């Protein structure tokens, strides 16, 4: 069984009728009125979104924003865990396990230490304004989460070419040398086994 379809099926059985109604309303710009009226379950709604290319195992941002809008943070968390565990990305286009651990540590340090200047950093990483707008819309009022999700999106887009050295270089390019130093210190601690 496809793990992504199993996840969507699980989401469908966890959504109430009221939540389904909210999801249908939020999809009015994406799906025609007639088609929406015939939808009886979240499973059907997900199928339509998949048919229209709004949702796939490699494209979950729209689903995440829908679930966030109806305040189902539990499902958003499950979706993020699914993505983080590499189920969404093709395994041959991911950094190796060692680099993934390093990236995860670097993202934590960066998100703990970079504040309002996060857009400057993302631009240095060639992350587009459109991509940033999408992340900001999905995480309004939460600066830290906007940065974390932007970095994860960057990592996903880069695939196996995502490297911690790129993050450090971008930090230095933005004159965020203190944060770059902290990332390097964290990586040294990981290498010596104290982390």
Work out the strand percent: under 5%
CATH top level of the largest domain? Mainly Alpha
The CATH architecture name of the largest domain reads Orthogonal Bundle
Total separate domains: 2
Rounded Rg: 19 Å
Write down the oligomeric state.
single chain
Mean pLDDT score: 87
By secondary-structure content and strand pairing, the structural class works out as mainly alpha
Total strands: the figure is 0
Task: Measure the end-to-end span.
Answer: 37 Å
In sequence order, what are the helices and strands, one letter per element?
Answer: HHHHHHHHHHHH
Shape: elongated
How many strands, what sense, and barrel or not for the largest sheet?
A: none
Helix content: 55-70%
Description of the structure:
The chain has 2 domains: 3-84, Death Domain, Fas (Orthogonal Bundle), CATH 1.10.533.10; 93-192, Death Domain, Fas (Orthogonal Bundle). The protein contains 12 helices and no strands. The chain has helices at 3-14, 17-26, 33-38, 42-51, 61-69, 73-84, 97-113, 118-124, 129-138, 143-158, 164-173, 177-192. Helix 5 packs antiparallel against helix 6, helix 9 (129-138) crosses helix 10 and helix 11 (164-173) runs antiparallel to helix 12.
Q: Topology of this protein?
A:
Layout: H1 3-14, H2 17-26, H3 33-38, H4 42-51, H5 61-69, H6 73-84, H7 97-113, H8 118-124, H9 129-138, H10 143-158, H11 164-173, H12 177-192
Task: Quickly describe the structure.
This protein has helices at residues 3-14, 17-26, 33-38, 42-51, 61-69, 73-84, 97-113, 118-124, 129-138, 143-158, 164-173, 177-192. The chain has 195 residues and is mainly α.
